[in-house]
TrEMBL record:
Originating species: Streptosporangium jomthongense
InterPro entries according to UniProt: FAD-bd, FAD/NAD-bd_sf, FAD_aromatic-hydroxylase
All residue ranges annotated as the FAD-binding domain in the record: 3-158, 263-332
Family matches, as Gene3D superfamilies: D-Amino Acid Oxidase, subunit A, domain 2 (3.30.9.10), FAD/NAD(P)-binding domain (3.50.50.60)
Descriptive protein name: FAD-dependent oxidoreductase
Pfam families for the chain: FAD_binding_3
Length: 392
């Protein structure tokens, strides 16, 4: 069996990892010129972490993780306004760079990854899919998977324009990593954030005297700025704290992650032998905080259903995969929408309420309860209720 996977992210590479171990002939195409460094920090746990453990990746992820001892809010002069010390019991959350997770999966994949390439055209009949690539070559495969993120090209070709599936959550996000010993030491292993109504900036120190920065802004217009660095300086330059220095070190636009905050909501995740995977069909947004975990779990379930159904019944396997994953995704997406006001409060009153909650949560015994309330539940189901086809 032959599969072409578009997108060498968490979802695409996890699927490649499993399919090749099932004896499939797999090829991956990726639009970016190479696997990239930097990016943004993610909290990785839940069903995706369970899958990573089964793939034997846990030791590597624990090595790549960053200790986050505290979540804290500061004011414009850097004074702490509220904080939550992370309890020991919460150590199943692995905080790491998205890139480090991608690289960990990538290093276990033997299938060729062709960079700087995407899908240009798709034709299918009951027997297979003919895929035209942007380099002008063609592939005949039994399965094409679009794991190419929230702005998926495979989705556009197979299902239609993004506007039919996107739910814009009214915010813009940006992130970048800088080398700065002094700022990195100043922030340390506390995730520090500054919020004013409609705007949030966060910082966390990385190994090697680097600093990861995250910006979140309420923005009714989904159009992205042409120059994200100029937009960041204009929007956050007056907020004080470490921001004037951090913004003066803004890298080239190509090194800045800048996007709309969206969810993807689709009734059908596959058509014939073309399937979508990860953010391409189930983006939950950074407000839900489970996207990487859900992407990895989705890849496992898809491989499991393909192993169970066998070669002759690929479309049935794709439908079964959606039936298993989609209810959990809807649950996490609903959680993400509820979480917007917590992460990006729209008024001074809401910021004061959040600080008050954090003080309450710091009382003995309340910390764990509080952190659990910030976690969408129920999605463990999708990897434990295995179809039985995939081992491990
Ligand atoms: C700021 C931020 C914070 C987040 N925090 C968390 C968190 O704490 N926990 C968590 O679990 N999740 C978090 N997420 C979500 C998580 O990063 C995503 O859900 C996850 O990366 C989805 O994986 P994916 O493989 O489906 O897509 P992606 O990671 O988007 O990967 C898609 C891949 O496809 C490639 N690609 C794109 N277009 C094409 C094309 N046309 N042709 C070929 N290749 C293409 C891309 O270059 C990329 O390599 C966060 C997201 C953001 C933005």
């Amino acid at each position: 069996m032959r599969a072409l996977i578009c997108g060498a992210g968490i979802a695409g590479l996890t699927l490649a990892w499993h399919l090749e171990r099932m004896g499939w002939q797999v090829e991956v195409v990726e639009r970016a010129p190479a696997l990239r460094d930097g990016g943004y920090m993610i909290d990785f746990y839940g069903p995706g972490y369970e899958v990573a453990e089964r793939m034997g990746l846990a030791p590597r992820l624990l090595e790549a993780r960053y200790p986050v001892n505290e979540l804290g809010y500061v004011d414009r002069v850097g004074r702490r306004t509220s904080r939550l010390v992370m309890p020991e019991s919460f150590n199943r959350v692995v905080s790491l760079l998205r890139t480090d997770l991608v690289r960990a999966v990538h290093d276990g994949v033997r299938a060729p990854v062709t960079y700087g390439t995407s899908v240009a055209g798709i034709e299918q009949d009951g027997e297979g899919v003919t895929v035209e690539l942007t380099d002008g070559t063609r592939r005949e495969v039994d399965l094409l998977v679009g794991a190419d993120g929230a702005h998926s090209q495979v989705r556009k070709l197979a299902f239609g324009a993004e506007s039919g599936f996107v739910r814009y959550l009214g915010h813009r996000v940006a992130a970048y990593v800088i080398d700065d010993e002094a700022l990195s030491r100043k922030i340390g292993t506390r995730y520090q954030m500054l919020t004013v109504p409609g705007r949030m900036a966060g910082a966390y120190a990385l190994r090697g005297d680097r600093l990861a920065l995250l910006f979140l802004c309420r923005e009714p217009d989904p159009t992205l700025p042409e120059d994200p660095a100029a937009w960041l300086r204009h929007t956050y330059g007056d907020l004080g704290w470490i921001l004037p220095e951090a913004l003066s070190r803004c890298p080239d636009p190509a090194e800045i992650y800048c996007d709309q905050v969206t969810q993807i909501d689709m009734e059908h995740w596959s058509t014939g032998r073309v399937a979508l995977l990860g953010d391409a069909c189930q983006a939950v947004s950074l407000f839900a905080g489970h996207g990487a975990s859900m992407a990895m779990a989705g890849a496992w379930v898809l491989a499991d259903e393909l192993a169970t159904a066998g070669a002759a019944r690929v479309p049935d396997a794709l439908a079964a995969y959606q039936r298993r994953v989609r209810p959990a995704v809807e649950e996490v997406q609903a959680f993400g929408r509820r979480f917007i006001q917590w992460m990006a409060p729209s008024s001074g009153l809401r910021i004061a309420a959040r600080d008050w909650m954090l003080r309450l949560a710091s009382l003995p015994g309340a910390d764990r309860l509080f952190l659990n309330s910030l976690t969408a539940g129920g999605h463990g189901l999708i990897v434990t209720r295995a179809g039985g086809g995939l081992r491990g």
